[in-house]
Amino acid sequence: MAPSADLYLKNHVLIQFFYLIIRFFLLIMIFFLKGCLSTVLFSSLQMLTKCSWIKFFQSVYYTSEECCQCNYCHNLQLVNIYDFLHELFTLFSLMHLYPGYPAPMFQSRSDKLWTVGRYSWDDDYHDERQSEHSDKKKISHRNSSLTHNHNDNNSNNNVELFSQSWIEMLTLISNAELDVIEVLIELVMEPYFINPNLDNKFLLISAQSSSSLITANTPAVCHTEPCLTSDLIELIAQCLTGFAVEQAHLCVEVVPPVTRIRIDQSLTNQSIDMRQRACDLLLSLWHSIDDRSKVNYIHIFLPNVINMATLPLPRIRENCVDCILNALTIHAPTVENVFVSEIDRVVQWAGTDFAADIRNLLQDEFSKKRKPLPPPSRRSHGTEDFDHKQQRVISDFSKQIDCLLHYGKFINRPSQMNEMLAFCNLRKFYESINRKDMILRYLYRLDRLHAAYSNQTERGYTLELISENYSWDETSVDVDDVSPHYVQYGKSSSRELRERLLLDSFEYLKQGTDWEHAIDISNKLIHLYRDIMPNYERLSEILVSFIFFHI
Questions:
Q1: What is the DSSP string of 175-237?
Q2: Cα Rg for the chain, rounded, in angstroms?
Q3: 129, 142, 179, 213: which has the highest count of C-beta atoms within 10 A?
Q4: Class (C level, CATH) for 426-550
Q5: Domain coordinates in residue numbering, the chain
Q6: Residue 371 gets which letter from DSSP?
Q7: pLDDT tens profile 123-153
Q8: Spatial separation of the C-alpha atoms in residues 110 and 327, rounded to whole Å
Q9: pTM for this one?
């Protein structure tokens, strides 16, 4: 029987109003009236109960015969649930970067504004190197391990930054945001994996039922759209991570005492709980996925879990390590591939305390969770291999973190030689575990370092080493760690990128007057323009230079 318009009217008016606010807010939130719109948006969100969300999802997928013919129901049928949720979570993520009200910020050495404790090594690759004095002001750990400058003016600036922030209002908004995310995960994402055999059906938990019965006759997100669902899960995971990591007003442990006594203490305690709650929601989303499907989402969750673990809350770190170990039992090769890359990226701004803590937690928790092997008579070959594989992965993780801790302290220091040696040693470590992607990451960083110091000859050698990792194929390559100058060539083809690298290497070696090595590079270019991709105009240019070297 079709529901009456009276039952839907209130919910649909609210939903329509809310949906229009989202679209309007996305257009102008970073320019005008952010605080006002934030208040209106989250006031509307707080009015939406679980029952209201269920009514909305039902109305979207009811057929015209099943739904009433009011304008609200008719318009809701035109709403795509993926588009709606995508816009909503994108809005939340934008608000983490551009808060609606003044938020506490700190100023980094490069005179850029960063969220509390956020600092990245990658921002040091400029021609201007930092001085010893600026290194003392480095913010070494996001959200916690702040290396405070013992300068009275700096302390006064921090107090002023926090005193001008609307911490209480931002905390209330964050609390409303978490409430909405929790409901959406419960109603939209968690049931998705309960019965993956359903086709074009989605389970919604009925808020009207005291026993929380699950009804299978409620249409919702289609199981035939796994790509869209994967994108949505990734967006939710990034949103929750950004909520906890990017928002400075939740970092109550770094609030100056003068400001802290002026804040409602219940909100102070709530801020800590909200970061923990965001982590719990992220992990609940992970645990709601069935084990067969988790292997497809490891690359989504692991980077966010590692970012979440940078928060200085022991329980969060323990929970994140548990998630990593759980993923390790699902598919160790994928975990190893993602972890090595992500921990290398995160450790370099998260600080040594974070790295040492994660290493110790991984070793301790793995020892606790490791099940003793059965007697040899009942032990299968596969069980023993799986145990050894996990043990090897944890051992490699520990070695990697130890290596980062040892050499990381030499990076971003005034000593050029120490920094170059650190890059070279880290590159050799990744060569020992056969990680081509990490080798390239450090070779590109070494190239940027040589560029900063105008080391032309060394830069030519480095670019040649990088080129050896690419082929003459016409397929595109992964450009995540490629220097910005070479990204366009990598997106085009491996051949174009390798050609550009060799041409630049050739020019830098000529500038550095290393004629002998420049001849070797010219031979490779001659082979390219004569045999692989005939280009006689460029071939003649290379041959002219080749003759010049022999004069």
A1: HHHHHHHHHHIIIIIGGGGT-TT-SS---EE-TT-TT--EETT---S-TT-HHHHHHHHHHHH
A2: 28
A3: 142
A4: mainly alpha
A5: 1-100+167-234, 106-159, 312-372+382-414, 426-550
A6: P
A7: 333 333 333 333 333 323 333 333 333 344 4
A8: 38
A9: 0.73
